[in-house]
Amino acid sequence: MTKGANVVLGALGDGDVESVVVSLGWVSPTGEGDADVSVLLLDENGKVRGDTDFYFYNNPCAPDGSVQLLGKTPVGEGSEDRIGFDLKALPDDVATILVAASRYGSARFDELEDLRLTLSDGSGEPLLTYEVGDAGGVSALIFGELYRRGEDWKFRAVGQGYEAGFAALASDHGVDIEDDAEDDAETAGAVDDAPEAAVADPGDETAAGDAVVEQLPEPRPAPEPVAPVTGAVPPPRTPDDAADAVPVARKTRPRTAKKKVILPKALKKSLAENDAWRGARLFPVSALKSDRDREMRATSVLLAVMAQVPEFGRRLTAGFGAPAGRMETFTEVSLPHGDTPRRPDGVIRVERAGKLWTALVETKTNGNPLKAEQVQAYADIAARRGYEAVITLSNDVALEGSPLVEVKIDRRRKNKVSLWHLSWAEVAHQAQMLIRHEGVANPAHAWLLEELLHYLLHENSGCHGFQNMGPAWVPVRSGIQDETLCQGDPRALETVESWERLVRQVSLGLGGELGLKVLPVQRARRDSDAVARRSRMADQLCLDGTLRAELRIEGVAGVLGVTADLRTTKIRTSIDIPAPEQGYPLSWAKRIVRELAEAPADLHIETLVEGETGGPRGTLERLRPEPGDMLPKSGVKITGFRLSLFKSMGGQRGNTEAGFIRSIDEAVHKFNAGVLAHLDRLVAKKGA
Q1: pLDDT in tens, 429-450
Q2: Do residues 496 and 541 lie in contact, with contact meaning Cβ atoms separated by under 8 Å?
Q3: How far apart are CA 102 and CA 107, in angstroms?
């Protein structure tokens, strides 16, 4: 689509256009650029109706399921933010859905490349793409809008921005930023550096009197409150879109959602007489003896909790195009297929407004691979019976451009069947995010999720996630150490794919621990696809024997680097922190040493200097008595400091204690506990 164009959704395809997913994406040349998506529901006057019409990272879901921010999804060159809309569930007085994004502080959208919006139907089939051209030096950008015209929903490509940022965009659509700023000042003792929209209104009945206090991750700082921008260019409209109503000023402000139950990380003291006593579990694992037992138990446990905990079930299915509604789940269902009936591991059905959405589920545990013939059979059954999706679950991690199984979908059929994959690590991550950081509405539901998480993480469940680098790992590692691995060897590409799966799984684990979004940074040439990027990484692996990855942690300046050097068998985890804008270099050095007092003594600190490859470096143990040794003797300008930890990698490839995968996981979590935990005292967060 081009800027200003509009289209009726129903004219785009035969799929379900009442449930759609909008994806916003961009590419950062530095690998560090990002933005926050937001959604505003507007009435006929172009204003929010009230508190519940504004959705952002601290308020990601509508109670009726009509809007759900699905979070960031890694793609070939970075990540995409996905938003699910159930258009049937929207109240009749919502006339327009505004889809926007905003950047932090002084950052602008002209620093990002390949700004784009993609709209897909309920089956995941892309319907339209809008590539935003020159966004200009704006810090808030309206990508597009969905709006009603009679009985139809239409989409308009907008691509208009606000130089004054998110505050101006919100003010233009009825959100009172100035009043929010005054309220923030009054509540500064309770909420520090919170965005205006995240501060509970003193008059809100849900803001006080709840027995359980919601423990949300620290929100990002919002842009400074400013007056609305009167010179912003309105989105272009066609004659059939002309509105007769006169905009009415409205003073409303979004509030946080009702308090939710979050289980504490520190459990109460046990009443057991000794450590040999084991607490009774809802989902026992001691009786699991075979792979078939593990698959049946894991499927039944997961589907049962999905049906009983609406927040969790919706979290896992919204991205698959499922509507928000009453969910029921089933196991060991027999479905006709030729001469031999097929028995999928599970079935998920969601009812909404008298319509059914159905997905067949195929599960594998204990590292067993998915079988293409099984998934193909379920895809054929789903197509014949009018089902919407086939969902596979296994310990493997799906990669963009590299499906786990090849399945042929008959495009001639009117009914479209979507094929989706979940890793057990992602399921555990979503459960951990809900019960440890975001919360659920019911204490019993929180307990159910806790039991599910305990089951998934138990060594006998078979749901441990990606745990094997594959058959190419040992030959590639030996070839690098013997200097016999040549460029173009297909085993190097297999190793790179395994490495990328591992990095994505590590990101999920770290994100669940921190309660923040953690995503791999996919640095690539513009317009190159994921397969080409992995090919270049494989060539690099053959040349220097290293596997590299970068993880972007929400709200942390800089990226976490992970390098596995197969020649030296060392794993390096590191992060670069910028030099302060004020003060003296010696003061910076002393502060770093002081704030890292509890960090590991073998932490390496390297001073980054302007125009040179590197400055002084040393271990924290050596620099503690003499912080001045961190300063370059030549007086060259210091641009930052690199903090690094080194660890020996495991020597085996499987799931043994000394395995490579376990070594990477331990290295990242050690760096998080020993270094990242102190960064909030060393550097300002983005936008601060």
Answers
A1: 999 999 988 888 889 999 999 9
A2: yes
A3: 9
Q: What confidence category does residue 291 fall into, taking pLDDT thresholds of 50, 70 and 90?
A: confident
Rounded Cα gap, residues 527 and 76, in angstroms: 10
- 557: tokens are 């300046």
CA distance 44 to 148: 10
Is the Cα dihedral 301, 305, 306, 308 positive or negative?
Answer: positive
Q: Could you report the per-residue pLDDT of 108-135, keeping only the tens digit for each? A: 898 888 899 999 887 778 899 999 987 8
DSSP symbols for 90-135: S-TT--EEEEEEE-STT--GGGSEEEEEEEE-TTS-EEEEEE----
Backbone angles phi, psi at 595, to 5 degrees: -70, -25
- Supply the DSSP symbol for 412: T
CA gap 219, 200 in Å, rounded: 13
The answer to whether 361 touches 295, Cβ cutoff 8 Å, is: no
**Mean pLDDT taken over the chain:** 80
Residue 277 and residue 270: Cα distance in Å, rounded?
10
Strand boundaries in 249-317, DSSP class E: none
Q: Quick one: pLDDT band at residue 667, thresholds 50, 70, 90?
A: very high
* Cα 452 from Cα 263, distance rounded (Å): 13
Nearest to 654 by CA among 460, 396, 468: 468
Alpha carbon separation from 469 to 34, 332, 507, 539, 659 (Å, rounded): 31, 32, 17, 18, 10
Phi, psi angles (nearest 5°) of residue 141:
-140, 125
Q: Which two tokens stand for residue 284?
A: 């026992």
pTM: 0.74
* Burial readout 453-481 (b: 16 or more C-beta within 10 A, e: otherwise): bbbbebebbbbbbbbbbeebbebbbebbe
- C-alpha separations of 536 from 292, 491, 588 in Å: 40, 14, 39
Are 525 and 509 in contact by the 8 Å Cβ rule? The answer is: no
DSSP output for 201-230: PTT-GGGS--SS---PPPPPPPPPP----T
pLDDT exceeds cutoff 80 at 51: no
**Which amino acid, residue 531?**
V
Residue at 409: amino acid letter: I
Count of other CB atoms within 10 angstroms of residue 419:
22
The first and second tokens of residue 480, run together, are 């690098």
DSSP 459-476: TTSS--------TTHHHH
How far is Cα 194 from Cα 36, in angstroms, rounded to an integer?
A: 15
Neighbours of 566 (CB within 10 A): 22
| Helix, strand, coil percentages, rounded to 5, for the chain | 30, 25, 45
**346, two tokens:** 């599970």
Nearest-CA neighbor of 257 among 426, 67, 81?
A: 67
Average pLDDT over residues 258-272: 72
Find the DSSP H helices in 545-642.
585-595, 620-623
List pLDDT tens digits, range 382-432: 998 989 999 999 999 888 767 788 887 666 665 688 899 999 999 999 999
**Residue 22 confidence (pLDDT) above 50:** yes
Contact 562, 546 (CB under 8 A): no
Helix axes 310-317, 291-308, angle to 10 degrees: 110
Which three-class secondary structure state does DSSP give residue 357? strand
Query: At residue 47, does pLDDT exceed 70?
Result: yes
